[in-house]
Each structure stands twice: as C-alpha cells, then as structure tokens.
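Hey, resending since the last one bounced:
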Amino acid sequence: MKGWFRLRVVAIFLVVVAAAWYSYPPSQKIRLGLDLKGGMHLVLGVDMKKAVDAAVEKEITLLQGDLEEEKVDLDYIKRKDLYTFEVKVIIPEDLEKVKNVLNRYSELELRGEGNDYVVMALKASEIRRIKENAINQTLEVIRNRIDQFGVAEPTITRVGNDRVLVQLPGVKDPKRAIGIIGKTARLEFKLLDEGHSVQETLSRGVPPGDEILYGKRVDKATGRVIKVPYLVKKRVLLTGDHISDARVKIDPMYNEPYVALTFDRVGAKIFARITKENVKKRLAIILDNVVYSAPVIQEPIPNGRAQITGRFTSQEAHDLAIVLRAGALPAPVKILENRTVGPSLGRDSIRKGVKAAMVGLILVLLFMAGYYRFSGVLADVALLLNMVLIMGALAAFGATLTLPGIAGIILTIGMSVDANVLIFERIREELRLGRTVRAAVDAVFSRAFITILDANVTTLIAALVLFQFGTGPIKGFAVTLSIGIVASMFTAIVFCKTVFDLVLDRIRVKSLSI
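The structure tokens again:
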C-alpha cells in the first residue's frame, strides 16, 4: 500500500514539474492564434477544372512523344472538351499503332473511333484522383512556401472538396504573403518559333502548334512597363517539377539579382538533351504563362543548371526562389475570403479573456473555500494545479491558444470543481451515517471514480468530435476543453485522494473540515 502511495506522490510531482517547465514563461511558450495575435485569414478556392485541364494536356504531350517514337504521321491531336481529345492520323494504317500506344495509358479510355481517328477521355476514377491530388498537393505546396516565408504557427487546413483555409498569425506584410501563397509558379521551358514573324502572326493568326505569350520589358528612360510578344511552340520541353534547388544570386556585370536553378538528375538529363539538340535556338523560360527570358542556347549545358533573369528587385527574386523551391501549385487558386486581424484586437481579446477567466477563477475559489472549508481549500489547490496542467499541455503539444480556447478554459474552471463537489457531498453523507473519516473517504473515492469517469468521458467524446469535424475557432475550444477534462480528472481523483491519504495517515483525524 505504501509503495502505491509513494508512486502516486512521485507521479504527481513529475507531472506538476513537467507542466510548469513547459508552460514557463507563458508569453514565450504558449502559441497564440490568429484572433489573439493578429494576422491574416485566407480562404482559397482551387480551380479543379484547370487541374484536370493540365492533366489532359500532360497526357497529350506524353502521347505526342510516344507516337513520334513509333514513327506515326499525325494529322492532329485536338481537344474536344475538358476531358476528351481526338487523335487523327494521316495514314489510316497507322491507327493500329496509335491504339497500341494508347493501351499503355491506363488512365485513358476509348470513347469513339473512325477510319483514321480515335477519341480518348480520362476515366472517371482518374478524374477523381486528379481532383483529390490537386487539393492535397495544394496543401503541401502552400505549407512549404509558408515555412520558407518564415511564418510561425500557421494554420493550413482543407475545407470541403476544393478549398483551403490559411491563417497566418503575426504577418506584417499581407500583400507579399498573398503573392507567395497565391502564385501558381508553373515553370516551363519551350522553344521559340523563329520560322515565323511575330508581327505577321499577330495580324494573320497563330500557326498550328504555336501560341503567343508575353514578356515584360521596362523602358529605362520612362520606367514604363512594355509588353513584349513571343511566338512560342506549345510543346513543353521541361517543367519546374524537376527543380531541386533555386537560389538568388547577383549578376556581377549588371549588379542585379537573378534566380539560379539546379535540376534533379532526371531534369539535368532532359535539359542536357534539349540544349544539345537546339544549339543556336532560343529557349523561352516561362513562369505562369509570362516569358521571363528567351536566351539563345550557345552550347550544350550538361551540368543541369539554368537561370531566370528579369530585372528583379532583391525581394522579388527571393520570393520567386521560394515558390520555385516549394514547387508549383497543381492548379490556380482564387482568394475567396481575405481578412486581416489587427494586433490591437488581439490584445483586447486577450485582456478581456484573461479578465473573465480571473473573475471566474476567483469566484469559484472563494465559494469552494467558504462552503467546504479545508476540503474547499484543497479543491482550490487542485483547480490552480489544473490551470498549470492546461498551460503545460498546450505548450508541450504545440497547440494554439485561441479566444474560443480561453472560453474552454473558463468552462473548465467551472467543470473541474464538479468532481470535487460530488466527492465532498458523498463524504458528508457517509459521515452523517456514522462512518469514520477514513472509511468515508475510502468508500467515496472507490465508488465516485466510476461516476466521475462516466460524466467526463461523455464530455470528452463530444470535445473530440468537435475537434475532428470542427474548424478554426471550434477546434480551439475543443482543444482546451479536452485538455481541461483530462486535467480535472487527474487533480480530482489522483491529487485530492493522495492529499487526503497523506493527512489521514499522518494525523489522527476524528472529524473532517468539510
């Protein structure tokens, strides 16, 4: 029995010390949410149509390459709608080769065919997979960008099927943050079509397989930004998916920053082949359909390195390097909601929340001490210990304290003494029946345990459901409520019973101040 008692004493000591260690000082250890610290609240919508469209275009590009290797004379590959495209051959006998190649594409299905053409479409299962991957990849890319941007304690969660919630506490430059988060950052390398005049193309129409993209040039005399048209081949030779690193460097000749790119092993191999096969041709470096530069390939580049220039400021180059390192978004995102919470509102919320918590705490302490006397003082000590445990748990688990979280703590203050009230009233009943103090305490704690456990477990289940299915403020409330319930069970059952045992074992008590 003594061994079990000592174990409880040691456990209580270690728990209290650990909680105090993790929670002190609170201003540095407790993470504050957006509603307390101030910052940005964004709801982003992912363009699922663009995600599917990009997937179909990628399939078409891969298919074109495979058909070229099979020496198939294509008339065209053209889109019919978002999900389907038509492949037409010049020689009908080549259609069998086309079908053989298409058999390799498990994500495609046949929708129709003729003498010299087939109509293919993405399977429904593939469309679902693309949309699911789009939202998951968007979450990952945004998380990587924000981590590199340097925001502490961000909240990035999925909302529904096509939305992302982003909360950035303490952000001081919202415009820059939005630029980094919302930039698609789709980097592509394409050849310029130098066989046609850009000006003639603008007036007569774009040749098949080409497109007009624009770059920007700043007039040094006036500072005016001029749009420069480029005639670019549609076929994508290389994308930013193969970038392993992107860093800002300074051009020693012009003293201007640029972004140096390093490709991974596969990307370096592809880039080496592109530069080898297209010496003296111009290669456009395109980011989100804007041509940043179109240098002439002077010689093969086998080391897997490239650079993006564009008269950047230092911050622009740094932000571009961030989004390139983090990867491209699978589809454009649209800002559906943008709210900025000022830090003054956060300070006001903290002040009022702390004031409410302190008033509630003091009232409960006074009531328990006045009504239950010595036992009430013990309940007060348990309540204060409960607050320490909540703060320690929030710090240890890296949870974020929000305004609804403070409401959860205030609710816990009232709930945490419920168990003590139940125990004390049952002890009073046992004493009125003529039992000794020791017998009354032992009987009540042995029987009350199940009742207290049942009452708290049902509340804990409700709190866990709120945490699982709730978002933002609801989760903040559920976190502190859950921690408070567990802490109150520990203080009411373990701590109070241990103190009673300690007093009754050391002192021969004939009556209990209760």
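The domain at 49-126 is CATH 3.30.1240 (Hypothetical Protein, Haloacid Dehalogenase-like Hydrolase; Chain: A; domain 2).

Sorry for the duplicate.
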